[in-house]
């Protein structure tokens, strides 16, 4: 059993309610921070903890906090990014649904650290019922003196508001989120200026993921140094992984980043192996945007070392033979899944979610989707595969926001590792409609001939 | 002004000094020529414009004197301000040229390429862009996105199929009129400029959206299909107008005024008027004053020789009677452009073809 | 005529109060949600103009936002909208079969509404329920681990609810 910091109490009966949460030790970090620490000291603890943003980019949270501008007389804001929309990711939802007070507690401490008197939770519009859960938790926190004016006599005022989005993946990008929070279309802003200088209503703003903010609670309770001892290297603390796809036990798991990918997939404590006794073909370890890896590269790195569930190990080998931790959306594909079709659904997703502001993303995502659909239907040409590669390379890095990269990487990785499957679709158009390519040489250790 | 701090920025090996806050694109325009990246969405007179089309991407090979690290990604030169000691590569960067060709291909993907029947042909920035940076042919084999033509009142026609979503017209309406009535609807590849409800645009400065539109998406209904721009002759003219500066460009054929537009500078943007403000013109001047008698003609407009609009403008031109030897006091140049053989400054042992970049005087001082 | 009831107006005021003075535009998304729930599940031009007026915005600002977000319907929809996820993880768990089944069962295509105005079928992209796939959103809540039997039960449930409310 690994260390559990966020979900340790998630299954205590009635933990959604304030009384139970408090009895289980909730809101201690607020007491500790507001009574015994300065805001700067809180930032310092978070820095020491080595906590990396859990939304996907993995940027050190403490460092992000220290960038916030503090001009005289201008209010600052903390915004919680609960617009969880990356395919394969549903960890924030789980956390908010099961233990909402943990997020509220983390938000109060973080708001104190950043000097945010009005803090906003921007939650994806589809999570409509979670808004009620959060608002109830906020109301309870108010009644018990954890929110409002002069909290615990510290002189610090704080209110938390929940804002619902309305269906746009792009609003998970922090500047698009701020635009949306201002009541506009979710078009990402052109940076600079960065939100830390000019964010919400042109005021200094920090945007953090739900899980990152929840992690502030154990960091303050145990101290940044203690927190940093959990995990390995620069992957400190625990990480929520939402596992889905063709596995026996899909769900959200808290891991301490010391277990191997193999253990995560096959042990009964986590995913419980592949469904229906099938074999593992491929996996996207960090949400749909990160590169897909075939089984042989997933379980072991290109150097033949065991791959672990942490930032460094998952990205070992770069994009050539590695992937990324991303948001922790762990999508597993079994031997009967078609990579072309799967990649097509992702391309369709990104085309649907492109905001349309900049040309490479607006036009490129649609083009990739059409080509992939054609390939999937067995109407593609060999040159389409090269064309896809070229299109993704023209999108990557050339767009306003990371959605362009996010749309390009899955296509690139699918072609990089599964090119023969794409070619098989072109060469056997009719066969490709009635059966799948199978495992081929992707799986380790058994060799299965292509198309067998 | 003299104590203003100037920053040094080097673009394609040419160094200029610009005030703080200048963007890379503005600095490059100061240098001019091929060093200037093309811009389809940026419009210096419209606040907030730029950053969207990605044609002006450049490589920053040195961030600044203080922090010389290169920027990992290509940046939009129209929205990136220069730092002291910054080094930028535009046409000297293969990465930039490749990315730009990609952007051109993306922009043309759903563009109808109906130039033969488009009023904008001849003064279309997308045409220029694709000639200069695009590739021949398209690899797109799917049906193009189309929209129905929309009338935005008596004067303006919206041909959304040609639009490249630069947002300039939205900024124009926002910044020139008290009430914006059109905007960008939907998202992604089906985003469109529209009013949502069939609506006429009324504001008296709204005609300027035609001038800022880089393509033929917004055209002047009073000029539609009347003529090709290269058959008309542009002259500068003005009239007294109590709404706008009244300084315009008339597009004539004989004595007939076919079209009235604002005056444009070499970047295709509306010029400053004599009152020092941007020379936006009102609907009355643009659409309703089509008699030559309404205007005081100042003289022909300077047209770039490379523009198709300069075609036929030199008919009947008298060649200068002086010959070269006469101008050069008896010496007849062998080849005007052959600086290698005639230069006494450049050292012949320095091979320009072996330099990776344009030659600079310092190359000859070794 | 489109007009919030007194209770809806209270909710409107609560939403607007969350933002600083002069930033009432920020309430646009929540207010549009409120309007959509209040006025028949979609946003007519009249509704959007009403919201624009309440928030002191130009109508085009509301149209721009309403057409950007996929949860806002600018066309009428059925009483019950089945929004079935079809992205990668749901596809891996058979969402295609579920969509085909609903189509067959209701006799409509994706994007269409049954003639009685009861059901609309819509496909959506990832709703963040990948571990509980296949799934769909019905009103405020998710229906997860869908099977053909479950779909039957949901359709039955909707019909019963509609009958009871009539």
UniProtKB/TrEMBL annotation, chain A:
Residues 340-385 form the NADH-ubiquinone oxidoreductase 51kDa subunit iron-sulphur binding domain. It catalyses: a quinone + NADH + 5 H(+)(in) = a quinol + NAD(+) + 4 H(+)(out). Its cofactor is [4Fe-4S] cluster; FMN. InterPro entries: NADH-UbQ_OxRdtase_51kDa_CS (IPR001949), NADH-UbQ_OxRdtase_suF (IPR011537), Nuo51_FMN-bd (IPR011538), Nuo51_FMN-bd_sf (IPR037225), Nuop51_4Fe4S-bd (IPR019575), Nuop51_4Fe4S-bd_sf (IPR037207). The keyword Iron-sulfur applies. Keywords: 4Fe-4S, Flavoprotein, FMN, Iron, Iron-sulfur, Metal-binding, NAD, Quinone, Translocase. It is an enzyme of class 7 (translocase). One of its GO terms (molecular function) is 4 iron, 4 sulfur cluster binding. SUPFAM superfamilies: Nqo1 FMN-binding domain-like, Nqo1 middle domain-like, Nqo1C-terminal domain-like. Its EC number is 7.1.1.-. Belongs to the complex I 51 kDa subunit family. PANTHER family: NADH-QUINONE OXIDOREDUCTASE SUBUNIT F. NCBIfam families: nuoF_fam, PRK13596.1. NDH-1 shuttles electrons from NADH, via FMN and iron-sulfur (Fe-S) centers, to quinones in the respiratory chain. This is NADH-quinone oxidoreductase subunit F. It comes from Hydrotalea sandarakina.
From TrEMBL, chain B:
Residues 7-94 form the 2Fe-2S ferredoxin-type domain. Residues 95-134 form the 4Fe-4S His(Cys)3-ligated-type domain. Its main location: membrane. InterPro entries: 2Fe-2S_ferredoxin-like_sf (IPR036010), 2Fe-2S_ferredoxin-type (IPR001041), NADH_UbQ_OxRdtase_ferredoxin (IPR054351), NADH_UbQ_OxRdtase_Gsu_4Fe4S-bd (IPR019574), Prok_molybdopt-oxidoreductase (IPR050123). It comes from the Bacteria. Transmembrane segments: none annotated. GO terms for molecular function: 2 iron, 2 sulfur cluster binding; 4 iron, 4 sulfur cluster binding; metal ion binding; oxidoreductase activity. GO terms for cellular component: membrane. Pfam families: Fer2_4 (PF13510), Fer4_Nqo3 (PF22117), NADH-G_4Fe-4S_3 (PF10588). It is found in: Membrane. Its cofactor is [2Fe-2S] cluster; [4Fe-4S] cluster. CDD domains: fer2. Belongs to the complex I 75 kDa subunit family. This is NADH-quinone oxidoreductase subunit G. It comes from Hydrotalea sandarakina.
TrEMBL record, chain C:
Its cofactor is [2Fe-2S] cluster. Keywords: 2Fe-2S, Iron, Iron-sulfur, Metal-binding, NAD, Translocase. [2Fe-2S] cluster binds at residues 85, 90, 126, 130. GO terms for cellular component: catalytic complex; membrane protein complex; organelle envelope; organelle membrane. The keyword Transcription does not apply. GO terms for molecular function: 2 iron, 2 sulfur cluster binding; active transmembrane transporter activity; inorganic cation transmembrane transporter activity; metal ion binding; monoatomic cation transmembrane transporter activity; NADH dehydrogenase activity. Binds 1 [2Fe-2S] cluster. GO terms for biological process: inorganic cation transmembrane transport. Pfam families: 2Fe-2S_thioredx (PF01257). Belongs to the complex I 24 kDa subunit family. This is NADH-quinone oxidoreductase subunit E.
């Amino acid at each position: 059993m690994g260390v559990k910091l966020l979900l340790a109490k998630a299954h205590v009966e009635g933990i959604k309610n304030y009384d139970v949460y408090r009895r289980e030790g909730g809101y201690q970090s607020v007491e500790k921070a507001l009574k015994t620490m300065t805001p700067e000291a809180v930032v310092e603890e978070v820095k020491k903890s080595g906590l990396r943003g859990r939304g996907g980019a993995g940027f050190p949270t403490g460092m992000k906090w220290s960038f916030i501008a503090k001009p005289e007389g201008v209010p600052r804001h903390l915004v919680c990014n609960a617009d969880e929309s990356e395919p394969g990711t549903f960890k924030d939802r789980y956390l908010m649904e099961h233990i909402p007070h943990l997020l509220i507690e983390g938000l109060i401490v973080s708001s104190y650290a950043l000097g945010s008197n009005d803090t906003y939770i921007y939650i994806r519009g589809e999570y409509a019922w979670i808004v009620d859960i959060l608002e109830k938790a906020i109301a309870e926190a108010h009644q018990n003196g954890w929110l409002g004016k002069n909290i615990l006599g510290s002189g610090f005022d704080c209110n938390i508001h929940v804002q619902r989005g309305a269906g746009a993946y792009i609003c998970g990008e922090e500047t698009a989120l701020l635009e949306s929070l201002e009541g506009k279309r979710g078009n990402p802003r052109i940076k600079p200026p960065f939100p830390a200088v000019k964010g919400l209503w042109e005021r200094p703003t920090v945007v953090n993921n739900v899980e990152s903010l929840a992690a502030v609670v154990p960091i303050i309770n145990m101290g940044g140094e203690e927190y940093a001892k959990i995990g390995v290297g620069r992957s400190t603390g625990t990480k929520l992984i939402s596992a889905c796809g063709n596995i026996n036990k899909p769900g959200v798991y808290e891991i301490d980043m010391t277990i191997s990918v193999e253990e995560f997939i096959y042990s009964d404590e986590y995913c419980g192996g592949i469904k229906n006794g099938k074999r593992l073909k491929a996996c996207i370890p960090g949400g749909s945007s990160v590169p897909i890896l075939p089984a042989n590269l997933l379980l072991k790195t290109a150097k033949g070392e065991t791959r672990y569930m942490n930032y460094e190990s998952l990205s070992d080998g770069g994009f050539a033979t590695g992937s990324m931790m991303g948001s922790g959306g762990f999508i597993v594909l079994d031997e009967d899944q078609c990579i072309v079709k799967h990649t097509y659904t992702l391309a369709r997703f990104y085309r649907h979610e492109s905001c349309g502001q900049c040309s490479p993303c607006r036009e490129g995502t649609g083009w990739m989707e059409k080509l992939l659909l054609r390939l999937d239907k067995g109407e593609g040409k060999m040159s389409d595969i090269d064309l896809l590669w070229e299109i993704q390379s023209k999108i990557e890095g050339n767009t306003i926001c990371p959605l362009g990269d996010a749309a390009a990487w899955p296509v690139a990785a699918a072609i990089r590792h599964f090119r023969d499957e794409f070619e098989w679709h072109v060469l056997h158009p009719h066969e490709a409609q009635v059966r799948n390519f199978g495992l081929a040489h992707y799986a380790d250790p058994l060799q299965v001939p292509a198309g067998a | 002004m003299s104590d203003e701090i100037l920053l040094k920025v080097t673009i394609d090996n040419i160094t200029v000094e610009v005030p703080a806050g200048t963007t890379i694109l503005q600095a490059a325009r100061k240098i001019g020529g091929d060093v200037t990246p093309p811009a389809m969405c940026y419009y210096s007179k419209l606040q907030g414009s730029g950053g969207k089309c990605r044609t002006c991407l450049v490589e920053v090979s040195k961030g600044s004197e203080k922090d010389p690290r290169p920027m990992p990604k290509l940046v939009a030169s129209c929205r990136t301000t220069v730092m002291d000691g910054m080094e930028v590569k535009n046409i000297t960067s293969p990465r930039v040229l490749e990315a730009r060709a990609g952007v051109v291909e993306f922009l043309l993907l759903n563009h109808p390429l109906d130039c033969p029947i488009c009023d904008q042909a001849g003064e279309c920035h997308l045409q220029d862009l694709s000639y200069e940076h695009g590739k021949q042919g398209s690899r797109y084999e799917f049906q193009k996105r189309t929209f129905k033509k929309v009338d935005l009142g008596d004067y303006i026609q919206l041909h959304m199929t040609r639009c490249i979503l630069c947002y300039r017209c939205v900024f124009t309406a926002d910044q020139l009129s008290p009430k914006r009535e059109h905007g960008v609807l939907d998202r992604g590849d089906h985003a469109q400029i529209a009013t949502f409800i069939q609506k006429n645009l009324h504001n008296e400065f709204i005609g300027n959206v035609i001038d800022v539109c880089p393509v033929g998406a917004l055209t002047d209904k009073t000029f539609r299909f009347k003529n090709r721009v290269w058959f008309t002759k542009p002259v500068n003219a003005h009239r007294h107008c109590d709404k706008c500066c009244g300084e315009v460009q008339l597009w004539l054929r004989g004595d007939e005024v076919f079209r009235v537009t604002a005056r444009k500078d070499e970047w295709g943007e509306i010029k400053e008027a004599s009152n020092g403000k941007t020379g936006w013109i009102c609907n009355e001047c643009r659409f309703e004053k089509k008699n030559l008698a309404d205007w005081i003609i100042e003289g022909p407009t300077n047209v770039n020789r490379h523009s198709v609009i300069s075609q036929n403008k030199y008919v009947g031109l008298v060649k200068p009677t002086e010959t070269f030897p006469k101008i050069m006091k008896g010496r007849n140049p062998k080849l005007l452009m052959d600086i290698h053989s005639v230069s006494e400054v450049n050292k012949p042992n320095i091979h320009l073809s072996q330099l990776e970049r344009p030659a600079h005087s310092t190359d000859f001082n070794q | 005529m489109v007009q919030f009831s007194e209770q809806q107006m209270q909710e409107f005021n609560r939403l607007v109060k969350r933002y600083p003075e002069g930033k009432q535009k920020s309430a646009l998304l929540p207010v549009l949600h409120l309007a959509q729930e209040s006025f028949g599940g979609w946003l007519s031009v009249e509704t959007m103009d009403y919201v624009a007026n309440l928030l002191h915005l130009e109508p085009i600002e509301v149209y721009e936002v309403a057409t950007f977000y996929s949860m806002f319907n600018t066309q009428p929809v059925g009483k019950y909208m089945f929004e079935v996820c079809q992205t990668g993880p749901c596809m891996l768990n058979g969402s295609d079969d579920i969509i085909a089944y609903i189509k067959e069962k209701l006799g409509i295509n994706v994007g269409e509404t049954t003639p009685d105005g009861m059901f609309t079928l819509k496909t959506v992209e990832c709703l963040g329920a990948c571990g509980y796939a296949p799934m769909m959103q019905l009103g405020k809540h998710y229906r997860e681990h869908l099977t053909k039997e479950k779909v039957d039960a949901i359709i039955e449930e909707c019909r019963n609810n509609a009958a009871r409310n009539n």
